Amino acid sequence: MRVIADICITPMGVGASVSDYVTEAHAILKDAGLNATLHAYGTNVEGEFDAVMSALKRCHERLHELGAPRLSTSIRLGTRIDKPQTMNDKVNVVRDKLAHRA
Amino acid sequence: MRVIADICITPMGVGASVSDYVTEAHAILKDAGLNATLHAYGTNVEGEFDAVMSALKRCHERLHELGAPRLSTSIRLGTRIDKPQTMNDKVNVVRDKLAHRA
Amino acid sequence: MRVIADICITPMGVGASVSDYVTEAHAILKDAGLNATLHAYGTNVEGEFDAVMSALKRCHERLHELGAPRLSTSIRLGTRIDKPQTMNDKVNVVRDKLAHRA
Amino acid sequence: MRVIADICITPMGVGASVSDYVTEAHAILKDAGLNATLHAYGTNVEGEFDAVMSALKRCHERLHELGAPRLSTSIRLGTRIDKPQTMNDKVNVVRDKLAHRA
């Protein structure tokens, strides 16, 4: 089962600045071979359900190892069976429609 | 890795009323042996990371089988290593503090 | 515009235990006259869009006053125009269907 | 109160393909003068709390007008008082740290 997901991991109990943790998580998602794209409030990934969740688990394990006593993660997870669709497809169709309105 | 999660699966392309799908998903989470508690905008579950994600995958597979062409799921996922904590613990500590304010 | 929402406010930079903040936020939502129901990963509320958002803003302001340098909040927000629906309606229809499966 | 938010509006009951609705919502956020950046599972925005929520309300109103009987929106909302921070700041600090790991 192929998924497009959006993952935002929030480390708690480690101060207000968490970019070291966010960087580590992003690197883990990328190293897992997922197509991972950073944005200002999370990371888009696409891949097989099991691969995405396995990488997410590794993120939690690793961020705890790095000192975060608690993590709260927000995930959006999309699947569809009516047609294949990539992250690029999703962005491009909206960009095209925005361009035609201008 | 033990997790507390909150799962809200949104079926798309099947009409505005989706309680048949929500019911099916809730039953799958419960049948997976997870402690699953329904609320007005999702279901709380607790269990091992792999068990939760395996049940979630089954939800997506089953809801597609039942006719939903597309699903968009919102998940909150919490882990902590500073102390053990159940869903009941989380609710009870806040309820106690609210009672002491009254 | 009437909404059903689910709000989970995550204080960052204040330690791993945040129940004092969660309690305060829940009390603010309740004091705003919203029907607020606590669960293990957030609070369900229903009311007018403006009333819900005004209360949410007050939560952020107050939790910052109480010492949280940073807050990351996850919200689900539902509106529908095909029929009126309360939080109780949403839970009851699924509970009824679960009961009929048993 | 300045916020960075991430908004993903899911139209229900209108078919599996919803890019017309997503395009309209994105245009409303942009037209509201918010710095709005599209990604594959939502839109980043930054601005004053009231301006962001007012634009979000307009999105719901407009998408209902366009025919969506039901909408379920997922929002992440961040505020911090320890230092000013833009969406660009958030992305750039992580990109810089990723570059230094390479």
Gist?
By secondary structure, chain A is of the alpha+beta class. The first copy, chain A, has helices spanning 19-31, 49-65, 87-101; strands at residues 2-12, 35-39, 42-48, 70-80.
What does this structure look like?
The structure is a homotetramer of 102-residue chains. The first copy, chain A, is α+β, with helices and mostly antiparallel strands. Chain A has 3 helices and 4 strands; from the N terminus they run βαββαβα. Chain A has a single domain, classed as Alpha-Beta Plaits, CATH 3.30.70. A 4-stranded antiparallel beta sheet of chain A has the order 2-3-1-4, covered by helices on one side. Chain A is globular and about 45 Å long. The model of chain A has no long low-confidence stretch (mean pLDDT 97). The interface between A and D is medium-sized, with 35 and 35 residues.
Keywords:
homotetramer; 102 residues; alpha+beta; four-stranded antiparallel beta sheet
First CA to last CA of chain A: what distance? 37 Å
Mean pLDDT of chain A: 97
Q: What fraction of the residues of chain A are assigned to beta strands by DSSP?
A: 25-35%
- Which bin fits the share of residues in helices of chain A? 40-55%
Named CATH architecture of chain A: 2-Layer Sandwich
Q: Biggest sheet of chain A, open or closed, and with what strands and sense?
A: 4 strands, antiparallel
Q: How many discrete domains of chain A?
A: 1
Radius of gyration of chain A: 15 Å
Number of beta-strand segments of chain A? 4
Strand order within the widest beta sheet of chain A: 2-3-1-4
